[in-house]
Amino acid sequence: MSFDHIYAQAVANKGESGLTALLPKPKTTTALKKQPDSAYLAEMTACVFRSGFVWKVVENKWPQFERAFANFNPTAVAAFSDERLEALAQDPGIIRNFTKIKATRENAWFVTEIAREHGSFGKFIADWPSSDQAGLLLYLKKHGSRLGGHTGQYFLRFMRKDAYIFSRDVVRVLVAEGIVEKEPTSKSGLMAVQNAFNAWHEETGLPYCQLSRIMAASIRDD
Known about the structure:
Blueprint lengths: L3 H11 L1 H7 L6 H6 L2 H14 L4 H6 L1 H7 L5 H5 L3 H7 L9 H21 L2 H7 L5 H11 L5 H10 L9 H9 L10 H18 L3 H10 L5
Helix pairs in contact: 1-2, 1-15, 4-9, 4-12, 9-10, 11-14, 13-15
């Protein structure tokens, strides 16, 4: 299960310099801890609202989201009343999806509870090892709101935690390598993928996010 042939195919597709330019750079644990909890809640919210929606619309409305959700101060949002949530569901400045608006308050509760236990949400994320991203994804799904599947993965990636993503092309490589038969959603499937990424990380010394990107680049654009 060597990573050599995957890397070689990615270089053949993109060229050495082209591939290097594509590789994401994860933040250090120190940098992750320095980010305020409001930044984590904001990115959670952006990922939740992007899911199943046109990302550009969320981006264009983002200043209104910041206004509506008190600049994503977790303590403030956690205290929003049901009436305030209902009013936001009528606000044309944001996307008026009540389920996702309610999820923002639930995730504010989640962030504040984690911060109370660990000192900050950033410290919690930074201290969780990338060698157990599967465990972190399962934790986010269980304790957060609407943070399962790709939403949780994109949240970690956009916060620049060293994390892989199950893009269509990454899944194609995982299937071709015989690690899973389809995109993993069960605990056993996630752990099988985690074990593969751990082995490739040990073999190459590359961050998990870069392994993921190289895998995607190894698939030809047809």
